[in-house]
Amino acid sequence: MNPIAVKETFPVNPQKAYQREAWSGGYESQPNEYDYWIEEIEGEIPAELNGTLLRNGPGLLEVNGQQLAHPFDGDGMISAIAFSQGRAHYRNRYVRTEGYVKEQQAQKILYRGVFGTQKAGGWLANAFDFKLKNIANTNILYWGDKLLALWEAAQPHSLKPQTLDTIGLDDLQGILEEGDAFAAHPWIDPRGNDGEPCLVNFSIKTGLSSTLTVFELDTQGKLLKRYSHSVPGFCFIHDFAITPHYCIFFQNPVSFNPVPFALGMRGAGECVKFQPQQPTNIIVIPRNGKDKPQIFPTPAGFVFHHANAFESGETLCIDSICYDSFPEVEPDSDFRQVDFDALSPGQLWRFTVNLTSQMVQRELTEPRCCEFPYVHPDKAGLPYRYLFMGAAHESTGNAPLQAILKIDWETGERQLWSAAPQGYVSEPIFVPHPQNPAEDAGWILTVVYDASHHRSDVVILDASDLNRGPVARLHLKHHIPYGLHGSWVSEQLMGLG
After folding, report:
1. Within a domain: residue 78?
2. With contact defined as beta carbons under 8 Å apart, do 230 and 204 qualify?
3. Which of 163, 337, 388, 413 stands the most exposed, by the fewest C-beta atoms within 10 Å?
4. CB–CB of 375/408 below 8 Å?
5. How far apart are CA 169 and CA 157, in angstroms?
6. What does the pLDDT read at residue 330?
């Protein structure tokens, strides 16, 4: 791999590629639920592209005019774009969680948000109220014939695949015990269950020490393995990585002071502080369910997302988006007025852990501001060649994600398709071509907020050559607020002909 000396095929723009006022329009609530065939299309939907693109994210950023303090506190809205025979259908539904239903009935905020949203009435109205609202807003997964809306602090909500209507909380056939969560970043190991796919996910119970519990489920949703390990210290972990023999967690160097939260002065997320003098600990847990974890310190940084990991002899390689520090949530700040220039960007790093020598090395492999990495699903946990990410339009500095970046680790080539200056991209979802086994044969699907029309487009890119530009651009009738994560299901969930 040649991480820095690369062949670039980027457009060049000497001016700033975004306007903060235009970008902030993607954080307006979308109170409406839609159900329609997409008729306004530029280009042509590939005939081989059949299945359902699922997206989840906060759809409501206010309740009856009362603004939320942070988008991560917003109620989950599921979007499903179903592709069938060259046509596409859009449907969105809110997850009818208990909290969503109660707040819509009351037309006011009834719950404190993890990232700073408070009930009206000041600290007295919020003190010692520890009841969390399960907002089901982070990811959407179809597994074991169940459609699950995920939020990492609680159980998932089950939805009807054909309509997106909410069924209710789901304990996954009794796998989840009372108080168990089911994280929002599961991995599908393509051959982890005797050659068959299996789902790997985790939950955390944290405090002065933390317990990590790993679940492995077969394709029918039945439990294959459940194993737990305790590690010292507080854990703030959003994502993890897998290889055939290990689960890998990055314990970010942060502390949590519960006093302001308990006294009703701050949200829990506002009480998390980065500790640059402490190392980031890489926790390696064997998937055999028996052996104890190993912990490897590395210089401080903050990791939200991992691109992939793989084994090379006695060495683990983990590719991760790393920040210089945790982007702390400041009380009374307005998330629509982010000063991007004042924040350090997320960048791609490779961490190598030698399990025998106990040595850890790290290397900056992509300096461009980037997030939401995605690989071919058959390469999860295995050596891979191609990586796709959301990225900034410019090669340096911090900025909103306006582009899709493709990295070829074998040749060092980077390709970048940009929606700037008016477009803002979401996580790229890679859809493999059903007949072509090449690793980059298929399509990249991304939802792009078009600030010039205050609407969203579903953009289809040829994954083998981003330089071609969009194969098709599907114009929706409305905007989708900036989302978090999504998935592709090769089945036609919506029952469309």
Report:
1. yes
2. no
3. 337
4. no
5. 4
6. 75
**Three-state secondary-structure class, residue 292:** coil
Residues of the binding site: 185, 238, 305, 485
Binding residues for Fe cation: 185, 238, 305, 485
Cα gap 111→102, rounded to integer Å: 10
Say which amino acid occupies 345: P
Contact between 247 and 215 under an 8 Å Cβ cutoff? The reply is no
In a domain, 421, yes or no: yes
Q: Kindly report the CA angle at 415 between 386 and 82, in degrees rounded to 5? A: 70
Mean per-residue pLDDT for 48-77? 96
C-alpha dihedral sign at 126, 129, 134, 139 = positive
Amino acid occupying residue 383: P
76 neighbors 136 (Cβ within 8 angstroms): yes
| Selection from 496, 472, 495, 493 nearest residue 140 by Cα | 493
Does residue 497 form part of some domain?
no
Helix (H, G, I), strand (E, B) or coil at 126: helix
Amino acid at 406: K
From first CA to last CA, the distance across the chain in angstroms is 45
Per-residue DSSP letter, 274: E
Q: Is residue 1 part of a domain?
A: no
CA distances from residue 319 to 127, 385, 457 in whole angstroms, order as listed: 41, 12, 29
Number of domains, the chain:
1
Domain limits for position 305: 8-489
229-278 pLDDT, tens digit each: 999 999 999 999 999 999 999 999 999 999 999 999 999 999 999 999 99
Q: Which residue has the higher pLDDT, 401 or 177?
A: 401
Distance CA 483, CA 424 (A): 11
Question: Residue 12: is its pLDDT beyond 60?
Answer: no
Indicate the average pLDDT of the chain.
94
Q: What is the pTM of this model?
A: 0.95
Whether the ω angle into residue 345 lies within 30 degrees of 0, i.e. cis, is no
Instruction: Decide if 280 contacts 241 (C-beta within 8 A).
Output: no
